[in-house]
């Protein structure tokens, strides 16, 4: 009889510790989930804060940066016309596929509308583009800005000054 009581006692102790280990495992899993949710929340908050500070700081793609830069330079003096938008799409489509072109043009129009001064856009995006583009690509970017500006048929002195500033910020010598 005493062997039976000892066996039942051992089985009871084993069941108790099995339950405790199972409960601890569930608690550890819940803690890990909570930590993951907090990390995700912190990451999302950082991205929201970054995007709220400036739509330019959220740009991490040279194609989107180029479309935003072109749109800001062209639309500062005059409203963005359908001819300008068509010219921007054509310029960007030369360096990206159709889906990326749409994304870049839409974001570029939105970002340029959020910032009143094209010089700020040039100052923020030109260093980013200088790091990621080679000399020929930077020349192509300046040519794209000029080509889109000609879509309206007129260029102002302010536009020429912005292009000169862009060339300077992209690392070219100014004459």
Domain module count: 2
Uncertain spans: none
Write down the oligomeric state: single chain
Termini Cα gap = 106 Å
Relative helix content? over 70%
Q: Return the average pLDDT rounded to an integer.
A: 85
Overall geometric form:
rod-shaped
* Rg from alpha-carbon coordinates: 29 Å
Q: What is the percentage of strand-forming residues?
A: under 5%
Number of β-strand runs: 0
Number of helices: 7
Order of helices and strands, N to C? HHHHHHH
* Largest sheet composition: none
Category by helix and strand content:
mainly alpha
Organism: Mesorhizobium zhangyense
Protein name: TerB family tellurite resistance protein
Explain how this protein is built:
This protein has two domains: 53 residues; 108 residues, no CATH class. It is built from seven helices and no strands. It is an all-alpha fold. Helix 3 runs antiparallel to helix 6. The protein is 79% helix and 0% strand. The mean pLDDT is 85.
